[in-house]
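Q: For a teaching handout, I want to show students what a protein-ligand complex looks like in token form. Below are the inputs, and the small molecule is adenosine-3'-5'-diphosphate. Please produce the holo structure.
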Amino acid sequence: MSVGPKKMEFSRGELFDFHGVAMVEQFTKNWEKVQDFQARPDDILIATYPKAGTTWVSLILDLLHFGQTAPERQTSIPIHLRVPFLESTLLSKDGGLNVGTDVAENLTTSPRLIKTHCPVQFVPKSFWEQNCKIVYMARNAKDSMVSFFHFERMTMTQPDPGDWNSYFHRFMEGKIVVFGSWYDHVNNWWKKTQTYSELHYMFYEDMIEDTGREIDKLCSFLGLTPSAKEKKQIMYGVQFDNMKKNDMTNYSTVITMDLNISPFMRKGKVGDWKNHFTVAQNEEFVEDYKKKMKDHTLQFRTEI
Ligand code: A3P
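A: Here is the structure, written as tokens, with adenosine-3'-5'-diphosphate included.
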């Protein structure tokens, strides 16, 4: 059975070095406009390394801000248009170009919720100048790697991930995966928490463990006080199974993704790496991880 709209032929992006970070043209084509993007003080930036649960946090923030005042958004506007992907340029259903900066500039909501996968050094300077709130979600490297591998298999504009073993090595190497090294990304954003107070650093594993607790922390960071009823509605809407069924959050409207190869809402678990890593790969990974992750104040859980 096929899922979603008719798929078109796409050429998979070619990776190249972009200021020291591996990128594909989809994310650099509009670079000048991305760098010149004018953030507003109440903009909220959602930043992640790919596959850390960006869509999950995006939906939570959208529901927290607009779930009561504009509930129709939930059933009429796909999440990637409610929370535009700043540096992305994507073909839309009608063959037109969907440019992240344009979608963000055309948002009529306040606050504007904006998503980025940029390493911290690439974030447009206006977000810092305007002292915008930033939510960074991180996920452990092993599950991020597995999730990214399946995502690249089904996303026709991303480089072909090749076989699992070669992908495993490329991910650890960090030079030939889109948005660069997971290790640099999570570490450099973590360092930023020391100098930028409007940054809330959260973990996918904590969200899986206790979504309600993490939403409470988010609310206190954002200065929001949802009612108990509202929180219950949000908790329900953002459950994995409900997001998977929901065409506004499961990416079935995005023609560059072939959900028959692998669904966007794939497993949503901590520890799926165990179904992919061989014993030898795990040993190699752990050795390499120790060398790369020297800051022991940043700790990830690979199982809960
Ligand atoms: P898996 O591929 O491991 O299933 P992103 O939005 O950053 O691209 O992240 C996608 C990953 O987050 C996918 O991981 C997806 O299943 C997971 N995810 C999305 N919504 C989730 C939810 N409500 N609960 C748990 N995991 C979720």
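A: Two things your students might notice: Residues 4-292 form a domain with the Rossmann fold fold (CATH 3.40.50.300). The chain has one domain: 4-292.
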